[in-house]
Structure formats: C-alpha cells, structure tokens
C-alpha cells in the first residue's frame, strides 16, 4: 500500500514536470 502510494506520487510529479516542460516549450517557441 505504501509503495503504491509512493509510486503514484512519483508518477504524478513526473507527469506534472513533463506537462509544465511542454507548456513552457510551446510558450517560448511561440514568442520567438
């Protein structure tokens, strides 16, 4: 149970980082 919670939390952090990375990339490329 603890490992499942840790894995889901890690996956959520990874997903948010990827989403923010894509968002920033699109934002900066649209400015150029």
UniProtKB/TrEMBL annotation:
It comes from the Eukaryota. Pfam families: Cytochrome_B. The chain crosses the membrane at residues 6-26. The keyword Ribonucleoprotein does not apply. One of its GO terms (biological process) is respiratory electron transport chain. InterPro entries: Cyt_b/b6_N, Cytb/b6-like_sf, Di-haem_cyt_TM. Keywords: Membrane, Mitochondrion, Transmembrane, Transmembrane helix. This is Cytochrome b. It comes from Oncorhynchus tshawytscha.
């Amino acid at each position: 149970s603890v490992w499942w919670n840790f894995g889901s939390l890690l996956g959520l952090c990874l997903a948010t980082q990827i989403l923010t990375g894509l968002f920033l990339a699109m934002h900066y490329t649209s400015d150029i």
